[in-house]
Design brief:
The complex is a heterodimer.
Chain A: E1 4-7, E2 10-13, E3 19-25, E4 32-38, E5 45-51, E6 57-58, E7 67-73, E8 76-81, E9 90-97, E10 107-109, E11 113-117
Parallel strand pairs in A: 2-11
Antiparallel strand pairs in A: 1-3, 3-8, 4-5, 4-9, 5-6, 7-8, 9-10, 9-11
Chain B: E1 3-5, E2 9-13, E3 18-25, E4 32-37, E5 44-49, E6 53-57, E7 60-65, E8 70-75, E9 84-91, E10 97-99, E11 103-108
Parallel strand pairs in B: 2-11
Antiparallel strand pairs in B: 1-3, 3-8, 4-5, 4-9, 6-7, 7-8, 9-10, 9-11
Amino acid sequence: GAVVSQHPSRVICKSGTSVKIECRSLDFQATTMFWYRQFPKQSLMLMATSNEGSKATYEQGVEKDKFLINHASLTLSTLTVTSAHPEDSSFYICSAIGPGGKGSDEQYFGPGTRLTVT
Amino acid sequence: GQNIDQPTEMTATEGAIVQINCTYQTSGFNGLFWYQQHAGEAPTFLSYNVLDGLEEKGRFSSFLSRSKGYSYLLLKELQMKDSASYLCAVRDSNYQLIWGAGTKLIIKP
């Protein structure tokens, strides 16, 4: 149980276009999801916390108008990278707190989306 | 500020034992996690400690000392497939995960 999927797994887009990444909790409801970015050989960097039915909470230095997050349902959160530039090329990973809620002992990660902006 | 420290890289031999240390300074503590991440893949959960002591799961064990702000991940009977990065993360008082930079473990035959 507690599976998180992401789509697409890989995407290549041209500079200036927008890309949407979906994160789904397949067999549980996730009131809170997290979006991370990871550059090569670096650790995960939390971008934002996505709460169902409310606005996302962005980490310092993350542009909320560039990285649009929508958590429209208990099983789906989307991250849209608007006006993408080559420096946005990265590995984007979502995660969700498990079925036990905040008391759960782990976050479940999606498989990640590798974005390449040309 | 909040800080997680772990070695950048370690090398060990197949069949041997290796211990990866993690020290932390965070605002509050609600558990410490170890994740394994193979190159190009998302992290996968290994262990969770919230009380002091040793948690054993097969070949992997994790230890926590809250008073010292210290944890280690112990890997026994190393296999080549254990070559990966190992991430230490602490959940703070806001239930946010604070991540270490990861330890790249290289296993040699």
